[in-house]
Prior knowledge:
Blueprint: H1 3-18, H2 21-31, E1 33-36, H3 42-50, E2 58-63, E3 70-71, E4 73-77, H4 83-106, H5 117-126, E5 135-139, E6 144-148, E7 159-164, E8 172-174, E9 177-182, E10 189-193, E11 200-204, E12 207-212, E13 215-225, E14 228-231, E15 233-239
Antiparallel strand pairs: 1-11, 2-4, 3-6, 4-5, 5-15, 6-13, 7-11, 7-15, 8-14, 9-10, 9-13, 12-13
InterPro entries: DUF2086, Oxoglu/Fe-dep_dioxygenase_dom
Family: Belongs to the iron/ascorbate-dependent oxidoreductase family.
Organism: Acinetobacter haemolyticus CIP 64.3 = MTCC 9819
Amino acid sequence: xxxxxxxxxxxxxxxxxxxxxxxxxxxxxxxxxxxxxxxxxxxxxxxxxxxxxxxxxxxxxxxxxxxxxxxxxxxxxxxxxxxxxxxxxxxxxxxxxxxxxxxxxxxxxxxxxxxxxxxxxxxxxxxxxxxxxxxxxxxxxxxxxxxxxxxxxxxxxxxxxxxxxxxxxxxxxxxxxxxxxxxxxxxxxxxxxxxxxxxxxxxxxxxxxxxxxxxxxxxxxxxxxxxxxxxxxxxxxxxxxxxxx
Length: 245
């Protein structure tokens, strides 16, 4: 790794460590997501986009239309991950563990998460989940992603990250992130977000707890991407658990 790359990665880690994680934690508890502004530079986003054309970095490519997932393509990285992605994955995880453990505790789910990401990956591997899940997604005009949840086996972490690598209203229009909350015995709630290039959006993988009159209940959440009206949209997804396939 060159010194310039090390310096850039350290700058990202310094930004992550300097964040007010108490505020971010409260936003995630309340909303199921939190937007963290301007963590990656334009240069870093462009370098990540350039990785898309390097086939040796990936274990699997998926044409979304073939599986009725939408219209576009995404590629799962293989291990070892690119250095910047690896560091973000390991540095953000410990800040999210208290949220994950609190959610599972109030919903009476029988799993607790270790403080380090390396320990959590060991849990995944013990259940046969050994394949990398970080991925880059590419959409052209008309591309979209249907509502879904990113679960790859019995062991999963309830929060994940997305970083939009293209600039909205410059590189593309449309392509908003869409979330639906499926509230028991009520109509679904929809939320729409448009992060800027280099922002990190932390959001729930599957559900969040809500407090009702008789204790906590589970609100299921799915996410997707609305159609791209013009241009090309790249994004990086960072999922903390590994996959079986």
